[in-house]
Amino acid sequence: MSETEQQSPGENMRKVFVKTYGCQMNVYDSDRMADALARDGYQTTDKPEDADLLLLNTCHIREKAAEKVYSELGRIRQLKQARAEQGRDMMVGVAGCVAQAEGQEIIRRAPIVDLVIGPQTYHLLPQAVARARGGEKVVETEYAIEDKFDHLPQAEKKVIASRGVTAFLTVQEGCDKFCTFCVVPYTRGSEVSRPVEQIVAEAQGLVEAGVREITLLGQNVNAWHGEGPDNREWGLGELLRRLAEIDGLERLRYTTSHPRDMDDALIGAHRDLGKLMPYLHLPVQAGSDAVLKAMNRRHTADDYLRLVERIRSARPDIALSGDFIVGFPGESDADFEDTLRLIETVRYAQAFSFKYSPRPGTPGAEREDQVAEDVKSQRLERLQALLRKQQTDFAQSCVGTEIDLLLEKPGKLPGQLIGRSPWLQPVIVDANSSQIGEIIRVRITQAGANSLFAEPLRADIGSVTV
Ligand code: SAH
Ligand code: SF4
Ligand code: F3S
Fold it and tell me: Where on this chain does [4Fe-4S] cluster 1 bind (predicted)?
């Protein structure tokens, strides 16, 4: 039995509640913060009212995302007050990209905040919390010189196991691309790639704890170029080949990729590695060359289409997903039609689309030719109707096919489990909860609004009823 198990949940067992906004990298970071605090005796709770420390891990990507933080802080103020009336303290921390972008300003607008900590400094979190507990208002947003990944601990096996059979693993952080709409290069800093051995060790630890699928994360994951054990610089294709050698690791994914960084080695990995799932999130943002140029994406629509062809000839069953922005400054009706045409050509399995949101400090926000809100809304509606149709068509095309399904977690109804198809769609199947973590062969029988339904194939039916 470990030390923490022996400890009775007495007075000195503090509780932390972490609420996560934004992208998968924040999901990963929230777990890392919880792991760092676990060493100081903090246990995670899913009840904010029980928290001695409440952390918001925030996103700054669009205005609405950032404003959510302040409305949440309003609610937390009441929670904190209710706890104070019972003589219990609650420390409030803001982490993530809003913390990095706004720093001290957060405490000015929301004085209940005790601690502001940016994504590059999470390894300093335990010390920062200790200082805040001493009464200091802490703002920790300076980029630390040490690499935080050298200092952030990996969770205990039982904690990893409790998080499920799929896991995220950040291999790259930050961005040097400076798309003119985007805050990420300012909030996450410049690109940093973790070395191969560090990544392999973390992956191995996850697999030993029962993880079967790992998604490698990075703001620009395919720009990853880390130091290999042979002192050479490796690319993502080579890293995926190395990770595919880990016994017990059955599935690999990665996200998010930039079209400029899809090299031959990575496309070759899609051709050769059975463990690498045939799904690729490859945002293009817009289909007009003028808009792509103004966005500083540094490729044309045609470059993107040719790239998609190369990827599809290497891995014909690959499903593509994308991100789109409508109403970037200067986008004309004709530009927007180009985006629709590109979507028609590519045929996406899934996509995320947004109205352009001017972000402070980015070149796009300075432009005078902003697109009117109602025009953005109309364009978004048309774009989403097309993408929805493509998503439904893709789901329908899956009906009748046989796939391997990694069983991840219980479904809504008893006797059901949920897994993901190779193309990342949720799949619901009748199976026994003891099978979580297994990969079974199923046939897709039906496509619902957001998920697929499947039946286990004969060989697996036996194991369901055992
Ligand atoms: N690194 C990824 C994207 C990260 S941000 C890439 O290069 O593709 C996730 C998505 O949010 C982007 O792909 C973009 O579609 C959207 N986004 C970013 N900034 C935005 C803004 N200012 N307004 C609207 N959408 C934005
Ligand atoms: Fe933002 Fe562009 Fe970097 Fe993606 S590549 S994170 S959109 S600046
Ligand atoms: Fe948001 Fe930061 Fe991720 S701005 S999308 S949480 S990198």
Answer: 23, 59, 97
